[in-house]
Design a protein that fits this description.
- The protein is an alpha+beta fold.
- 32% of the residues lie in helices and 31% in strands.
- It has 4 helices and 6 strands.
- The chain has helices spanning 2-6, 12-33, 40-59, 110-117; strands spanning 68-81, 92-97, 103-108, 123-133, 136-145, 155-160.
- The chain has a 6-stranded antiparallel beta sheet with strand order 5-4-1-2-3-6.
- Strand 2 and strand 3 (103-108) form a beta hairpin.
- Helix 2 packs antiparallel against helix 3.
- It is elongated, with a radius of gyration of 25 Å.
Length: 170
């Protein structure tokens, strides 16, 4: 239980404050061992600057590894459930991935349901904006479904049924 509690805190300040003196000490030891002709203060200041820049680059979202956005296109089948679940007032649209059986995305939107009913078939192209941190997907949002770009969902969800081998988010 205590580990779950820690998930609500940002540990980056602790990592920065704890790691800075360790990095400076490591740099001092390396310079002493290598018999470099630098003064202790020069090494300490240089190490602090390097550590701060690297920390900001890799752990604060400044670098290219955090918040990376991609646009992905998937072929999906759609179905409109006859009665919305969970007490929602709008139509429930369930989109299932063609190439990733078992994965689905649901939205409660009358506008989207009306648009999909006008489509000639059950397969549509869907564009997603996928946000990832260090190669792991943080989240996604639908940008376009069968040419429709502007719809206001009441609520949305995603999930998987069974134990699919591949994921659309990998």
């Amino acid at each position: 239980m205590p580990m779950v509690f820690l998930a609500y805190f940002d540990v980056r300040p602790v990592l920065f404050i704890g790691g800075l003196p360790l990095f400076i000490a490591l740099c001092l030891v390396v310079c002493w061992y290598a018999r470099a002709g630098f003064g202790k203060w020069q090494v300490a200041v240089f190490a602090a600057v390097i550590y701060s820049v690297l920390f900001a680059f890799f752990l604060t979202g400044v670098g290219p590894f955090v918040g990376r956005k991609q646009i992905r296109e998937y072929l999906m089948t759609w179905e409109i459930r006859p009665v919305p679940s969970n007490g929602m007032k709008e139509s429930e649209v369930v989109l299932s991935f063609v190439d990733f059986p078992g994965y689905f995305v649901g939205e409660f939107s009358d506008i989207l349901a009306t648009h999909l009913r006008r489509q000639p078939g059950r397969e549509v192209k869907v564009l997603f904006e996928v946000t990832s941190d260090y190669g792991k997907v943080r989240g996604f949002r639908g940008l376009e479904i069968a040419g429709l770009r502007d719809w206001k969902p009441e609520w949305g969800y995603s999930g998987a049924s069974g134990s699919p081998e591949r994921s659309p988010w990998d």
